[in-house]
């Protein structure tokens, strides 16, 4: 099967800082690195490295051909990424000594995806394929509706979080992934807890505590995270999501898919960077945690 990802593609400019800046503060960075990033690209690379076939639907500018080449190198099908006449999306990421981050995001070409491009890509999907989206591109509702009509498993990673964006795709979803804060924000907006939503699978990530899985027909399941020394949390959630989707695609029971994703995310936070340093399945399976 195939995972279709309507997803963002960014140049991640990562600055190492002694601490995260406050308003009006000027800080000198001790290091600067450029990585392939964007929640969409991260998830595509993670799912590909976890052993799935992944086709990415997105946009880059003329300055972003390096990102296309890199995604291809990492095993992602890039035929449905269009080059448009605007800059590639980018993120300015500050990372402190504890591994916490602060991000400024410019969407650029990620918001220039044409409906014809989307339709051309998904015309090659077959029932049972997975479709995933995040809130960093345009055309999310159109993609969700199209995926539902085609019999795809429609998944939504609700970040960056906007309650109205989630509610717009909610009628078409089979799987919703969000963090604990976002789950509370959605409850405040809809008046429903995530367990009450009309979605077959809901997964709430809990950071260093792990994840909570809430199936529509079944009991909630808590899966603990592995204890590691974090140096950079950027991209860890995307890695987790990509591995969960790959586990679903490969037919793993959901608890096993989540446990494997937890291992991948634990490895990820021990590394500096985003898509370029996402661990592959062999590394994840061989990893040993204290």
UniProtKB/TrEMBL annotation:
Substrate binds at residues 10-12, 38-42, 136, 238. It is an enzyme of class 2 (transferase). The active site is at residue 238. GO terms for cellular component: cytoplasm. CDD domains: ribokinase. Pfam families: PfkB. GO terms for biological process: D-ribose catabolic process. Residues 6-279 form the Carbohydrate kinase PfkB domain. Activated by a monovalent cation that binds near, but not in, the active site. The most likely occupant of the site in vivo is potassium. Ion binding induces a conformational change that may alter substrate affinity. It is found in: Cytoplasm. InterPro entries: PfkB_dom (IPR011611), Ribo/fructo_kinase (IPR002139), Ribokinase (IPR011877), Ribokinase-like (IPR029056). Pathway: Carbohydrate metabolism; D-ribose degradation; D-ribose 5-phosphate from beta-D-ribopyranose: step 2/2. Its EC number is 2.7.1.15. Its cofactor is Mg(2+). Belongs to the carbohydrate kinase PfkB family. Ribokinase subfamily. Catalyzes the phosphorylation of ribose at O-5 in a reaction requiring ATP and magnesium. The resulting D-ribose-5-phosphate can then be used either for sythesis of nucleotides, histidine, and tryptophan, or as a component of the pentose phosphate pathway. This is Ribokinase.
